[in-house]
Every structure is written in C-alpha cells, then in structure tokens.
Design brief:
This protein has 106 residues and is an alpha+beta fold. 15% of the residues lie in helices and 32% in strands. The protein is built from two helices and seven strands. Strands 1, 2, 3, 4, 5, 6 and 7 form a seven-stranded antiparallel sheet that branches.
Length: 106
C-alpha cells in the first residue's frame, strides 16, 4: 500500500465514512499500522465552508470529503480493500494536513 491509496472502511461507521486514504509516508512502511484520514460522504457533511481544509473527491462514483480532524492510526490488517488512489491529488491532501498541523499565530 502506498501513500494516498484509498481503502474501503471496514469499521462500524462505513455507511457515513465509506473510504479512508493512507497519508503516512512510505518511510514507515515496516510498521504494522497506517495513518489514515476518513473520506466522509459529502451528503453527510453538508456545506463545506473551508474547501482547502476539506477537499472533495469522487471515489467509485461517490462524492466524499477529506476530514483531517478525524485522522487515525489503524492496524494494516484492518484496512479494507484498496479501491483507488488519490496520488494525483496528493498536494491537496498535504495542504489540508498542513492547515491542521501548522501553527497559527493570532
């Protein structure tokens, strides 16, 4: 599995969060876990007020929204089937994570 691979969510919230995207660097591939960000059904999110933080993608005909505030680490053996890749949109994902992690001085 590679960074930005999209997997089916096999967890209990799979109806609302049908997919997750791997954001972890390949540098950590020997670890038994992967850091993923949920891809939430756009219909469950409603209006997105900050598109740079919550970019929208279409996965297998389903509109989904990246939800960085729900970032999580899960065991590799709990990742569902790989269904695609967002590597072409990797910069959008990194920019959203940068928004989450960058210090904001007010």
């Amino acid at each position: 599995m590679a960074q930005f691979d999209v997997h089916r969510n096999s967890g209990k919230h799979k109806d609302t969060i049908p997919f997750v995207v791997v954001v972890q660097s390949a540098q950590f591939d020997n670890y038994r876990r992967r850091v993923v960000v949920p891809l939430v059904r756009a219909t469950a999110i409603g209006k997105v007020s900050y598109a740079e933080f919550n970019p929208t993608f279409k996965i297998r005909g389903t509109s989904v929204v990246l939800h960085p505030l729900e970032i999580v680490s899960i065991p590799v053996d709990q990742l569902g089937e790989m269904v695609g890749s967002l590597s072409d949109d990797g910069q959008l994902i990194v920019a959203a994570l940068d928004e989450l992690l960058t210090r904001a001085w007010k």
